[in-house]
UniProtKB/TrEMBL annotation:
Keywords: DNA-binding. It comes from Ureibacillus sinduriensis BLB-1 = JCM 15800. Residues 8-61 form the HTH cro/C1-type domain. This is HTH cro/C1-type domain-containing protein. SMART domains: HTH_XRE (SM00530).
């Protein structure tokens, strides 16, 4: 037996199962046929399901030789990746360095002919980038070609997303967008073979990147496509991200009805999943809505209940910062400049935040601080804070946050009134 598909077909026939019987309720008959004929690569979850249906171990379906060792290394890397949030700690960096050494020792064995080999080569590139190691012997474009040859088409999107992410972190939003558009074109012949979550990811990234370059038409187009995929296939993955994105868009337009709707969706999602990150995000969402739509500033401190500083998980930290920024805005709007400055003491923009909308929301806090210093008669401190915010949003698309910062700048520099 030379291929995975042939092994699956032979085992199916030995069990006297039809394509439909083996596919069961997890695969389609058509997809299973493509897998057996070597025209599609099953995910590890699908492979595990097929193995269970024919009554064998997964290893029986896969090539022997060094594949078990490679699979163990792949599992070790994936486990570490899933449990790590960037930027990582020194301890986590040491773990990545140790795995990188293991990968480097195995790299000459990785010819890109098996799924495990290609995945490990992909991680070799990702780790090189994270650890800032230079390497030129294999590129992400080589990995994309390997995935196409073994029919792992969904992985192609993830590779282009990596390239886009690298450009995005350099604030090259148009280049990042072009990489995802290249992905969309590259997978077009295989679109019917790509899993829905990969397509959902692609349209989500396109939504975010079109928003970054202020193309509202394309932003809405890909947002609608993504939500259609999610609702049609009952996929809850990324729903929190989508609701949050559409909530911020609605706030930016001053659309109370849509803001209400997506704020409710965010609350329902957090209640349903009981996810700590989603719950922490509610503090910012409620405060942001209250400040900009309801303008009931005295209510904002009550939302702190959604975030507990003590024992707060690392991944919820951004939401804590955003909530403190909303507290700062509320105290300023109430005229309590000292409380506003106390609420924002030590607040800084994380170096991994790069989207113009996220940055604009955060930079608004420094304009608020500037207005507080100005109100307290501390003119130099006010100028320092407002210049940081003003120059920070200079190249960004217009938004309510950018407008606020510009008005604060004009008030402090020229004595004009802030609306």
């Amino acid at each position: 037996m030379n291929s995975l598909g042939e092994r699956i077909k032979q085992l199916r026939k030995q069990k006297r199962m039809t394509l439909e019987e083996l596919a069961g309720n997890r695969l389609t008959k058509g997809m299973l046929s493509l897998i057996e004929n070597g025209k599609a690569q099953p995910s590890m979850e699908s492979l595990r399901y097929i193995a269970e249906r024919v009554g064998v171990e997964m290893a029986t379906l896969l090539d022997e030789g060094n594949v078990e060792e490679l699979r163990e290394l792949l599992l070790e890397i994936e486990t570490l990746y899933k449990s790590t949030y960037f930027p990582y700690s020194e301890e986590e960096k040491e773990k990545f360095e140790a795995i990188y050494e293991k990968l480097s020792a195995k790299k000459d064995e990785l010819q890109g002919k098996k799924y495990e080999e290609v995945r490990l080569l992909e991680y070799y590139i990702r780790l090189s980038a994270h650890l800032k190691y230079e390497q030129e012997d294999v590129t992400m474009f080589d990995i994309i070609n390997h995935y196409e040859k073994i029919h792992a088409y969904s992985r192609i999107i993830d590779c282009y997303s990596f390239l886009a992410g690298d450009a995005f972190y350099r604030n090259d939003y148009k280049i990042a967008l072009q990489f995802i558009l290249d992905a969309e074109q590259r997978i077009q012949p295989y679109k019917h073979l790509i899993d829905h979550i990969a397509l959902l990811d692609m349209h989500y990234i396109l939504t975010v990147l079109y928003a970054a370059i202020d193309n509202t038409t394309k932003t809405q187009e890909h947002l609608d496509l993504a939500l259609e995929i999610a609702h049609k296939n009952k996929i809850y993955y990324r729903l929190d991200d989508f609701y949050r994105f559409t909530f911020i868009q609605a706030i930016g337009r001053g659309d109370k009805e849509k803001s209400d709707y997506y704020l409710t969706k965010l609350k329902q999602h957090a209640d349903f999943t009981e996810d700590k990150l989603s719950i922490a995000g509610l503090a910012f969402a409620f405060a942001h809505y209250t400040n900009l739509i309801e303008k009931d500033y005295a209510k904002v401190p009550s939302f702190r209940k959604y975030i507990s500083s003590e024992g707060m998980e690392k991944e919820a930290f951004d939401d804590h910062i955003l909530y403190r920024m909303e507290e700062t805005y509320a105290y300023w709007a109430l005229g309590d400049f000292k409380k506003a400055l106390d609420a924002s003491e030590g607040v800084a923009i994380p170096d991994y935040v790069h989207h113009p909308v996220d940055l604009s929301i955060m930079l608004r806090c420094f304009a608020v601080r500037a207005l507080c210093f100005h109100g307290l008669g501390e003119k130099e401190a006010a100028k320092t804070e407002v210049l940081y915010a003003y120059h920070g949003v200079a190249e960004f698309p217009n938004s309510i946050y950018k407008s606020f910062i510009q008005e604060a700048y004009e008030k402090i520099q020229y004595g004009k009134k802030v609306k």
